[in-house]
Design brief:
This protein is α/β, with parallel strands linked by helices. It has 30 helices and 16 strands.
């Protein structure tokens, strides 16, 4: 049996192992010397040194022909008649040295199928004097001679992707011949000048440079430097410098290609605003991919379809990497495509900026100004960045909606960008969702700014729903999450609303050149998204299928046992919130926990101070409430420090010990000040030098520290400030307060203690709920060890907060017992047991199995305004969980509907494009323009294939999904 058969049989029995790249490297290592030997062996000619064509004496070796064949001089010329940009080397008796085809006598003839024109005269004077010659310093000239440094006379500089060549070009001189520059252009050369060209670029090198610039970000300088090194590895500086010509000709080539792609070679009119730009094939565009017959509107298209079916989603953002310096001669700049692509037209935009007022409004949310004012103070910059609009669902840039920033990202800039975006193929669309990282402030007065401007236009029928991307919204106030996150916006599906960080352009370009580069990059980005839209939508479809299943299970678990009357009420409140969100964003707070807190310590302190002022209390009693409140804060700091010392134990670092020492120093200063103030409030009967017992508090935490370590640490700091008992009435006792004539301080401290207990229990509830949610959303869902570690670190952090507040409550209640509380207070503030702090699913998931008869601990119903004693927090958390689970399920259902619509719109878009190019092909044939017709046919076929491929993939995916659902 053949050994290969054995291998195949062995692999068929088990799974075939995929070899890694390192495996291939190990296989190559034993072959390394052999490869090196054969590499060097290629430097020598064959032993007979014969031309492979005529078998005469071989002189030239072509490095670009397959196998590096050897040619005689004549055969070298004839074989490279159609490959004039190959590099050759010449045999000098010892080795091959670099040469060029011009030295072999190659001449390029334009016209007559590459043969010499019969009417050819000496017309080389046409190629003289139109371009500058390179100026070299004497020290730059080589002190060597050879073909490489002795270019033939009457040769042109031809820049190809293989390097910089010097070749002789002869034009056709017939009476009806085209001008030399057009002859060169029709043969694939782009002349650098037009009267007497001496330099030309091949179409290949221009295409290669533009693609290199797009994919690798290669600048013109770096690209031309590469070409010079490819031409001469020893003396690249001697290669003619055509860097500036490359930049200029690349601009011209880019413009021609763009106009060709968008069909303006087939039209007699010139491009108008945004017509040299592609847009998203999957976004609804009436008249293009959304077909409405006759006088029907989009609202009449399908009475049973949801109101959000034709919603355009926009994401607005800025990019501060695309900065730009002031031009040296702005009056001398030439604009090739001002306002025709993605960047807005400069004249109207400048007039808008001149009239718009730069209003700086006070933010009611977090301060994002520092981010949006990046580079604002850099006066050497004409543009500090760019901003604009893209479709939020697919990331395609909207034509004619990109603007320059002058002083950071201001409202006037983004207003213009959004208004221009809302005008692009939006006829009949009445709903748009905008995502912007500061939309909570930006959207407030947007319509007023539009109405006040002569240069901002937006139809009043268009409803703008503001949103904030999921990454940015977490940097806002908590209230912004439910008001602006995409999770709670009807009809938007599942998107994150974050793109726009991929654009870049060199700072030193002229302003028109920079605009053209950015337009070209955005056009290419949209093209790449267009041809990959089939894969994108298929992936979205699969995610939506899975999302509907998973979110449905989560919602069903909550929905099954919820009382019908509560579900009806919650659904009605949800509908009211969604319908009111435009005029009142606070209506979306329905998705937040809304529980009225019991009076806090600060509220009680304020009330006591106001009461003291109202009754003109004595000077010694005027600020006593603040003094007692300060004492309570000191006790809380003592407990926090005590827990931290215990957590540290004896296995501490020098940095930890230094931090503890600093905290003790601050705390001791506070205690000293508080004790001195006690003389004023407690009277002469109080002796500040009394030595009370050290602080004794029960620490309720779940730390794993060794108790012996904590005992040793505590013994070492017996006089530490965290163990000092401060002179509060509760520590002095009722009898001693009466002796000091300070009996009136007892009810004051009792009131403040109640506020302290209320605060602590509220924080305890919040942290326990957070812990429950973390277990459900992070710990249980973690699929890897890294995610589990991160989730458990979050749980540990929350548990430490639980321990702190539980310890503070325990201390607070102990002090309240010393103040002779009433029966109502004893009933309200019960002892806190360790087992009551365990996470119960009744908190995070009240509808879980086995929890229907389980009631929450007593502290969940202290001073809250909902239902019965066990139903307050339970019901409120349940309501929020139900609403959020329903919102998640709704978004996934919307996502599925939108993806199916986008599949149809994408196929319609490709078919519309195919038809459009097909019509152009027929018109070109009628006009006897064969080249135009051929290009139109090729474009029409491309879009037809895209449509067929997308249609087949979508139908196959949906049929598989239906079969899976039936099973």
């Amino acid at each position: 049996m053949h050994p290969g058969a054995k291998i195949s049989q062995g692999r068929s029995k088990g799974q075939q192992r995929i070899q890694s790249q390192n495996d291939y490297l190990r296989q190559w290592l034993p072959r390394q010397q052999s490869y090196l030997h054969h590499l060097l062996d290629r430097e020598a000619p064959p032993e007979d040194r014969r031309c492979i064509v005529c078998e005469q004496d071989g002189v030239y070796k072509c490095q670009d022909c397959l196998g590096e064949p050897l040619y005689c001089t004549g055969c070298c010329r004839s074989q490279h008649h159609h490959n004039p940009f190959h590099w050759i080397s010449q045999w000098n008796g010892q080795f091959f040295e670099q040469s060029c085809l011009a030295q072999a006598g190659l001449v390029i003839h334009l016209g007559h199928d590459g043969k010499q024109c019969p009417a050819l005269a000496d017309r080389w004077d046409l190629f003289e004097g139109d371009e500058h010659e390179d100026q070299l310093e004497p020290e730059d000239l080589p002190f060597v001679s050879g073909p490489e440094f002795q270019p033939k006379e009457n040769t042109m500089v031809i820049i190809d992707k293989s390097g910089v060549h010097r070749l002789e070009i002869r034009c056709c001189d017939c009476p009806n011949a085209l001008s030399p520059d057009i002859q060169m252009f029709r043969h694939g050369f782009f002349p650098a000048s037009f009267n007497r060209p001496k330099t030309a670029f091949t179409f290949r090198v221009l295409d290669d440079f533009l693609l290199d610039n797009l994919e690798c970000g290669t600048s013109a300088m770096n690209y031309y430097s590469k070409l010079r090194r490819m031409t001469s590895s020893m003396f690249p500086h001697l290669v003619p410098d055509r860097y500036r010509e490359l930049m200029r000709v690349a601009r011209q080539w880019r413009q021609l290609k763009t106009m060709k792609w968008h069909g303006f070679g087939h039209r007699s009119d010139i491009p108008s605003t945004g017509e040299l730009a592609l847009f998203c094939p999957a976004c609804p565009q009436p008249g293009i991919n959304v077909l409405v017959a006759g006088d029907e509107s989009l609202d009449d298209d399908d009475k049973n379809s949801p109101s959000w079916k034709y919603t355009r989603s926009f994401v607005m953002d800025g990019n501060f990497k695309a900065e730009h310096l002031h031009p040296i001669k702005p009056f001398d700049e030439v604009w090739l495509s001002d306002g025709l692509g993605f960047m807005v037209g400069k004249d109207r935009y400048k007039m808008h900026l001149a009239e718009a007022a730069d209003m700086v409004e006070k933010s009611s949310c977090n301060n994002h100004r520092a981010v949006n004012q990046a580079n604002a103070a850099r006066h050497k910059l004409e543009s500090t960045g760019i901003g604009g609009v893209a479709c939020a669902r697919h990331g395609c840039f909207v034509p004619h909606s990109m603007v320059d920033f002058q002083k950071g990202e201001r409202q006037m800039n983004m207003d213009y960008a959004l208004c221009e975006a809302a005008r692009h193929n939006m006829e009949g669309i009445s709903r748009a969702v905008t995502f912007y990282d500061i939309n909570c402030q930006y959207n407030k007065h947007f319509r007023a700014r539009v109405d006040a401007s002569r240069f901002l236009e937006m139809t009043q029928d268009l409803t703008i729903i503001p949103g904030i991307g999921l990454w940015h919204v977490h940097g806002h106030q908590d209230s912004c999450y439910v008001r602006y996150a995409s999770n709670f916006i009807d009809g938007i599906g599942r998107i994150d609303g974050e793109i726009m960080e991929t654009l870049w352009a060199p700072r030193g370009m002229s302003s028109p050149h920079r605009q053209e580069c950015l337009d070209y990059q955005m056009n290419d980005s949209n093209f790449c998204k267009m041809i990959r839209m089939k894969r994108t939508l298929c992936r979205k479809y699969k995610l939506a299928m899975n999302g509907i299943t998973e979110s449905g299970k989560a919602f069903d678990r909550l929905d099954e046992a919820a009382p019908a009357h509560l579900k009806t009420e919650w659904s009605a409140r949800e509908r009211r919130a969604q319908s009111s969100r435009l005029n009142d964003p606070e209506a979306m707070d329905e998705y937040e926990i809304n529980i009225k807190k019991a009076p806090s310590r600060k509220e009680i302190e304020l009330r006591l101070l106001e009461e003291g002022s109202a009754r003109n209390a004595a000077p010694s009693r005027r600020s006593v409430a603040t003094w007692i409140s300060t004492g309570l804060a000191i006790e809380e700091a003592q407990i926090a420090l005590l827990i931290e010392v215990r957590r540290m134990g004896k296995r501490s670092t020098e940095t930890q010990r230094l931090d503890i020492a600093r905290q003790r120093d601050r705390l001791q200063g506070q205690i000293d000040g508080f004790t001195q103030s006690a003389l004023t409030h407690l009277g002469e009967g109080f002796d500040a030098d009394d030595d009370p017992d050290d602080l004794n508090v029960d620490i309720l935490d779940d730390l794993d520290d060794d108790p012996a370590d904590f005992s040793k640490t505590s013994d070492a700091w017996t006089n530490s400030p965290e163990l000092t008992v401060i002179p509060l009435p509760s520590n002095l006792g009722v009898d001693r307060c009466r002796h000091c004539m300070a009996e009136d301080l007892i009810p004051l401290e009792m009131s403040l203690r109640e506020g302290q207990a209320n605060d602590t229990l509220h924080n305890l509830r919040i942290h326990l709920c957070n812990k429950a949610v973390l277990f459900r959303t992070s710990v249980r869902q973690a699929k890897s060890q890294a995610l589990k570690t991160r989730a458990w670190s979050q749980v540990t952090s929350v548990q430490q907060a639980v321990s702190l507040h539980a310890s503070i409550y325990t201390k607070t209640r102990k002090q309240m017992m010393k103040l002779e509380p009433g029966q109502d207070q004893l009933q309200k503030f019960k002892p806190l047991l360790r087992e009551q702090l365990k996470i119960s699913t009744a908190v995070g998931d009240p509808n879980a199995r086995g929890q229907r008869n389980e009631s929450l601990a007593w502290f969940w119903s202290v001073e809250v305004d909902l239902g019965g004693p066990d139903q307050s927090w339970n019901e409120e958390f349940y309501r929020v969980h139900w609403l959020r689970a329903k919102a998640l399920q709704d978004r996934w259902k919307e996502e599925m509907t939108l993806v199916q619509l986008e599949m149809d719109w994408t196929c319609n878009y490709f078919s519309w494009r195919a038809t459009q190019w097909g019509d152009r092909m027929r018109e070109s044939l009628e006009k006897r323009l064969p080249g135009h017709a051929c290009y139109s046919g090729r474009q029409s076929q491309m879009y037809s294939l895209l449509a067929q491929d997308a249609q087949a993939a979508f139908e196959d995916l949906q049929s598989v999904s239906i079969e899976t659902g039936d099973e």
